[in-house]
Amino acid sequence: MLRPDRFLPGFDLHDIEASAIRIRASVGGAGPPVLLLHGHPQTHATWQAVAPTLAERFRVVALDLRGYGDSDKPEGGERHVNYSKRAMAADAVAVMRRLGHESFAVVGHDRGGRVAHRLALDHPEAVTRLAVFDIAPTATMYARTDKDFASRYFWWFFLIQAAPLPERLIAADPEFFLRTHVDGQSKTLGSPSPELFAEYLRVYRDPATRHAICEDYRAAATIDLEHDAVDADKRIEVPLLALWGARGTVGQTYDVLETWREKALDVQGHALDCGHTLQEERPDLVLTALASFLACEAR
Fold it and tell me: Which residues contact 242 (CB under 8 A, 6 or more apart)?
């Protein structure tokens, strides 16, 4: 049964069976398909200020990654395989195919950008254009880790510790951990809105969500790096747009375009005046950039 999405006006919520699990997706608009993938600790609601405008020209699908939001939260499996970006990318392709879309543009923020990267490598026939927000490639970031990065992105090294250490420590005060994490990344007053933070906290209070998030990060530090090493010589062939926050860690630590030119053949992009969560802090600039980048899709 479809239900209106209270965060994305004009969108309907779907529960879609994909890769043997249930994925929550919000769907709206008409036109060429565009898939939106959120990061941590967000859900599909992070696209609140972007998706409805995109839906004026596109068929927009914003989903909750497995383990996040209201999607299923399977066990991690051997070597965290069930939270590999390969598994998450397969979910996304299955959802889009169930909705009738064999090929589509992909926009991914944070963890969603890492899923989008893997999706473009594993399913090149499915991706027409790729946009990644405030990330450098995972393998690059681990390979170039130094004290400054490890201090700023401490959760990359905390959440990967063996269960149940991070899960139990976060459980002592999930709201404090979530607030500290979000406030450290956003550089724009009032972002996220109280409504969005309450939504993220709603799902963060669930122990299954917290365990899934840790499994996501554990996979990134293990099996994802193995997959990336096997595909080290592969290059994304479709156009890639990289946007990042000028006041965030990624923009201050890496030459973002250079890191993506090591992974893709056609790269463009620029910094926005904000922190990590571009779509919440500067949705106006995100929409301007996407309008130009996706223009040929809408013709």
Answer: 131, 132, 256, 257, 260, 267, 268, 269
Please give the structure tokens belonging to residue 66.
């497995």
203 touches 68 (CB < 8 A): yes
What span, in angstroms and rounded, lies between the C-alpha atoms of 195 and 201?
10
Q: Kindly list the strands in the beta sheet with 3-4, ordered across the sheet, starting from the edge strand earlier in the chain.
A: 3-4, 12-18, 21-28, 59-63, 33-37, 104-109, 127-133, 240-245, 267-272
DSSP state, residue 281? H
- Does the annotation mark 101 as catalytic? no
Choose, from 38, 109, 117, 276, the residue flagged as catalytic.
Answer: 276
User: What is the pTM (predicted TM-score) of this model?
Assistant: 0.98
Per-residue pLDDT of the chain (299 residues; tens, 9 = 90+): 579 999 999 999 999 999 789 999 999 999 999 999 999 999 999 999 999 999 999 999 999 999 999 999 999 999 999 999 999 999 999 999 999 999 999 999 999 999 999 999 999 999 999 999 999 999 999 999 999 999 999 999 999 999 999 999 999 999 999 999 999 999 999 999 999 999 999 999 999 999 999 999 999 999 999 999 999 999 999 999 999 999 999 999 999 999 999 999 999 999 999 999 999 999 999 999 999 999 977 65
276 is catalytic: yes
How far is 40 from 27, CA to CA, in rounded Å?
A: 21
State the catalytic residue, choosing from 72, 110, 134, 224: 110
